[in-house]
C-alpha cells in the first residue's frame, strides 16, 4: 500500500525546486503579480466564446491523431489502487478522457468496471473509441461508453444521474450549475446492473480528473467540480492528477502567454493552469468533498536524445464525497 502511494512522487523535494525557481531571474515573469492589462487578444477570444474553448481542443486532437502522442497511463493503477481492485460492478466517469490513455489500463485491470468517458472534443472521443474497441480488452464496446459534454458550462446528461437521483445523491448543495446543455450525449443502452434502469444509472462510484482541470479557465473550475460532486455516489471517490506549480511545462511559457495567476494560453488556444496544494484543497473542499490524499509528485524525467534532466511536478489528490446522513 505505502509503496503504491509513493510511486513516482519523491525524486526531489518540491521546496528545493521552489527555491531554485524563485532565485532564477529568468523565471521572474512567472512570479510577479499578474497584470490583466497584458492579457492578449487570443486569450480574450478563447475565454469569451464558448465554442472557441471546445474547438481549440478539437483542432488539437485532429493535429495529434497519432497514437504515439499519448502513452497509456498504467502508472495510475499504482497511484490509485482502488481502480484495479473493484470486486463488484463499478461505474467510473472519466472527465476529459482525451484519446483513452487513462481508460484503457483501467478496463484492462478488472472486468467489473464500466467507464463512461466524456470530452468536449469529438475528435478525441472518436479516437478513444477506436483505440479501446481495437484493443484486447474484454467486452470493450459494452464497457466503454462515450458522450460529448463540456462540464465547465453544462450539467452531465440525465441518463447518468436524473434530477430525482441527484437529489438523493446529494449530501449538501455546494454550487448551482445551470442546466444549459443542448447536447445530452450519445444514446446507448444502460448497463444491466443500473440502479434504476428505467431512469438512469444512479450516479457513479468514481470520477477521474486526470490532466483535465488544468485545461479549464480558472473561473469555471468551481462549477465544474460541483457537477462532478453531483453525479458521484455518497462515499464515492474523485481521483485527481494534474500539473503542479513550477512544472517544467509552466516554465516554458513566455510572458505574453500568461493570462492569470499560474494560468497560460498556448498559440492554438488551449489553456494550462498549474496548481498548488492549497489551491486544490480550496476548490474541492469548497464543493463539498473531503480530502483523503493531497501531495506534490516530483519526478525527474530524462530526455533520451540529449540526456537533459527535466523536473516534472504534478499534484496527486484523492477526495471523497461524504456519505449521506440518515434522514427519517
UniProtKB/TrEMBL annotation:
InterPro entries: METTL2/6/8-like, SAM-dependent_MTases_sf. Gene3D superfamilies: Vaccinia Virus protein VP39. The keyword Transmembrane does not apply. GO terms for molecular function: RNA methyltransferase activity; S-adenosylmethionine-dependent methyltransferase activity. Coiled coil: none annotated. The keyword Cell membrane does not apply. Keywords: Methyltransferase, Transferase. Pfam families: Methyltransf_23. One of its GO terms (biological process) is methylation. It comes from the Eukaryota. Its EC number is 2.1.1.-. S-adenosyl-L-methionine-dependent methyltransferase. Belongs to the methyltransferase superfamily. METL family. This is tRNA N(3)-methylcytidine methyltransferase.
Amino acid at each position: 500500500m505505502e509503496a503504491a502511494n509513493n510511486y513516482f512522487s519523491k525524486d526531489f523535494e518540491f521546496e528545493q525546486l521552489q527555491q531554485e525557481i524563485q532565485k532564477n531571474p529568468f523565471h521572474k515573469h512567472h512570479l510577479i503579480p499578474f497584470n490583466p492589462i497584458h492579457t492578449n487578444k487570443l486569450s480574450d477570444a478563447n475565454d469569451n466564446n464558448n465554442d472557441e474553448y471546445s474547438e481549440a481542443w478539437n483542432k488539437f486532437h485532429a493535429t495529434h491523431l497519432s497514437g504515439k502522442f499519448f502513452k497509456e497511463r498504467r502508472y495510475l493503477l499504482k497511484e490509485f489502487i482502488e481502480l484495479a481492485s473493484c470486486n463488484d460492478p463499478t461505474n467510473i466517469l472519466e472527465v476529459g478522457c482525451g484519446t483513452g490513455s487513462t481508460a484503457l489500463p483501467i478496463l484492462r485491470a478488472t472486468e467489473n468496471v464500466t467507464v463512461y468517458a466524456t470530452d468536449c472534443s469529438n475528435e478525441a472521443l472518436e479516437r478513444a473509441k477506436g483505440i479501446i474497441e481495437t484493443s484486447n480488452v474484454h467486452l470493450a464496446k459494452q464497457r466503454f461508453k462515450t458522450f460529448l459534454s463540456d462540464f465547465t458550462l453544462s450539467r452531465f446528461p440525465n441518463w447518468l444521474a436524473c434530477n430525482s437521483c441527484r437529489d438523493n445523491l446529494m449530501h449538501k448543495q455546494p454550487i448551482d450549475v445551470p442546466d444549459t446543455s443542448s447536447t445530452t450525449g450519445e444514446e446507448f443502452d444502460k448497463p444491466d446492473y443500473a440502479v434504476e434502469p428505467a431512469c438512469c444509472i444512479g450516479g457513479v462510484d468514481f470520477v477521474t480528473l486526470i490532466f483535465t482541470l488544468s485545461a479549464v479557465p480558472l473561473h469555471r473550475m468551481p462549477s465544474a467540480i460541483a457537477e462532478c460532486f453531483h453525479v458521484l455516489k455518497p462515499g464515492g471517490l474523485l481521483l485527481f492528477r494534474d500539473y503542479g506549480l513550477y512544472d517544467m511545462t509552466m516554465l516554458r511559457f513566455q510572458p505574453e502567454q500568461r493570462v492569470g495567476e499560474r494560468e497560460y494560453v498556448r498559440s492554438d488556444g488551449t489553456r494550462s493552469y498549474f496548481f498548488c496544494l492549497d489551491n486544490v484543497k480550496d476548490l474541492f473542499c469548497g464543493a463539498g468533498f473531503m480530502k483523503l490524499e493531497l501531495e506534490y509528485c516530483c519526478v525527474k524525467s530524462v530526455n533520451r536524445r540529449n540526456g537533459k534532466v527535466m523536473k516534472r511536478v504534478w499534484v496527486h489528490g484523492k477526495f471523497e464525497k461524504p456519505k449521506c446522513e440518515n434522514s427519517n
